[in-house]
Amino acid sequence: MDYVKLISEALWLCNKGKEEAAKAKLLELGYKYRLAQKILRYPITVSGSNLAADEKAYGGCTSNGFCAVYDNVLREQELDILRATFDSGKHFWSFHHYTEGVPSEYFSYAFELDEPNSGGMIQDVALRLQNQLADEFPAIREAKYIEWWAHCRPHSSGHQLHFDSADEGRNDVRNPIVSVVLYLRGEVGGPTLVTDQKMGDRKLARKGWLCFPRENRLCVFDGSLLHMVVPGRQDQECLDILKKQYNLETTKRVTLMVSFWRDLKIRNQNGRGSAVKFPVDKSDIDWVKQLQTKSTDASIHKPEKASVFDVENVWSSLQDDNIATMPSYDECFQGF
Fold first, then answer.
1. Which pLDDT score is estimated for 171?
2. Domain 47-315 is classified in which CATH homologous superfamily?
3. What is the pTM of this model?
4. H/E element holding 255?
C-alpha cells in the first residue's frame, strides 16, 4: 500500500469538497477525526496580486486575545535585506543543508534581547515589535531572549500541529511568551492555523483562527497555543488561479519566525541545533553579514491591523460522534 499516495488522495478530496469520498478514504486509513472543511478547503479569492481568504466565509475579527495580524510590519529596507538573506536559492539554506520540499532538521538562533549588537537586524525588529505588540500582549514586555528560525517552502507544503518549545520539548516543555510569523513572501501556501489547545488539555481544540499569507504580514499569538501551517490547496480551482500569476516550481512561501522568551538557554556551538548563539563574530559568512546590516530608515512606522478569521470547530468527527476525549495524534488527519 502506497500510504503517501493515499494521504495525497485524501487531501485532494478534502480540497475539492468531496466530503463523503474524503470521509470514506480517511476511515479506510484509520483516522477518526479530520481538520474541518473550512480549514483544509479554505475559501479563496484573488485580491490584487495575492491569493487571499474569502472573508465572507469567515467571521473576521481584529482582536481576540489569542492571536492578531498586522500588515506592512517591516520597513522597505528591512524587508529587502531579509529577502536577500532568506529568499529561495540563497546561501543561508545550503549553509544549513535545508531542503525546501522535504522537512529538514530543525535549527534556530538566539540572542539576549537587551544585549547591544547581539542579534543584528532581527534584534532591531524584535525590539520594535516588543513595543508595538505590548498593548495586545502585555507579557511580551517581560521578554529577555529571542529565538528565530526561518522556512522556505513550496505551495503544497504545510507544517504539522505543534507547540513551540525550548529545545524542541526535550526533557521539559516550556513555551515562549508569544511567537511571531513574519511573511517575507506570501504569494503561495496555506494559512497559519492557531488553535485554543494548550499542553495538558484533555480534549482537542475547539476554536481556531486562520492567518493567510501575505507579503510583509505578521501573525502573533500566545506562545502556549497549538498551531500549524495548513498545506496549500491542491485542487484545480486553486492551482489555476495561482498558475495565472506565478511559476509554482520557483515561487515559495518564505517566513521568519521569532519567539519571545523570559528565559532561554543559548547554546555556544557550531553548526545546526536549537537556540544556537547568533554568530555576530562571523561576518565573513555572507548571510551573517547581511543580517548585521543596520537600517538607515529611521522614520516612524506603524503596522496596520488586519483580520484573523474565526473557525468555530477545528475538528470534524468521521464517526458522527462528539469529540469527548483526547484521541491519539495519529487518529487526527491534518492533511499529511
1. 64
2. q2cbj1_9rhob like domain (2.60.120.620)
3. 0.93
4. strand 253-261
